[in-house]
């Protein structure tokens, strides 16, 4: 049997840190409101010259170094983003060129905040089929570019960043099970409903969201999909060493752990310092906890995404 294992990880955050206090000086909000409703204290915002591919490049270089491989060993690139540099070519192709490699397939995957979990599950299938042996899987976003900075209900929630892992074929798992879902009937609840037509922006180019509706949906499906993924590989909630849900809101994370009967100490939390970085949030949190030594070899980590679409999913990984 061929399985896939995570053999390295990396992440990158723009240097520009924007605190809740900074936002409160610009708009009608407060540190107290943002922290009590979301747990967020600050977020990183990309400078004008930074793009998803430039953030992805830094995260990928760190992942390649931590895996102890060379960029030429990569034979598949999947990049999850909803904020690509261009309509086309894909950000994955731009990243491939920036890494100085060519030839291997490279494509973007768009599943909004579930993007990294979708990309990881997809790369696992490519590797388990025997088609590819060493995948670079990235989540990279510059959500600050699609926020309406006059809408205090959304703009305080998000940040920019990128995270990446190297997934390599191995005789042992690795990725133990995954489950992916979507329900497009909720498209209007969380969307950027604009586009470009005839050289002009048509519709609304900013992120719009019914926050409370997303909140309720997220807590329910994160619980369900964790249990579904565990059942697929015959594991129990007690086997989870670390839970890394999409980092949208501390209250969603805590409610998910509670529904699963997991102690809050098993949650990896980065939403407080990163904000919601959409497809980048899960690999960013994974990299933080691998580097600070909390996640060790042999630990079972449940990665979970939920977001626009709606999309949701989970991957259970033995590190
Ligand atoms: O990645 C997936 C995408 N998004 C999410 O996961 C977000 C999920 N939802 C949430 O995290 C929460 O629903 C929010 C943080 C967005 C909102 O929290 P809430 O407790 O559901 O608050 P609310 O939307 O019910 O708003 C309550 C009040 C409103 O005032 P009134 O009408 O009660 O007087 C808002 O106008 O809070 C007001 N408000 C703010 N006040 C200060 C909304 N945004 C702000 C703000 N500062 N930034």
In total, the number of domains comes to: 2
H/E series: EEHHEHEHEHEHEEEEEEHEHHHEE
Approximately how much helix is present in the residues? 25-40%
CATH homology group of the largest domain: Thiolase/Chalcone synthase
| CATH architecture type of the largest domain | 3-Layer(aba) Sandwich
Beta-strand segment tally: 15
The helix tally amounts to 10
Any ligands, ions or cofactors bound here, and which? Answer: oxa(dethia)-CoA
Overall structural class, as computed from helix and strand content, comes to alpha+beta
What's the CATH C level of the largest domain? Alpha Beta
Question: Whole-number radius of gyration?
Answer: 18 Å
For the record, give the distance between the C-alpha atoms at the N and C termini, rounded to a whole number.
Answer: 18 Å
CATH topology-level fold name of the largest domain: Peroxisomal Thiolase, Chain A, domain 1
> Mind describing the biggest β-sheet?
5 strands, mixed
> Strand order, biggest sheet?
1-7-6-4-5
% residues in beta strands: 25-35%
Estimate the global geometry from the Cα principal axes. Answer: globular
What value does the average pLDDT take? 98
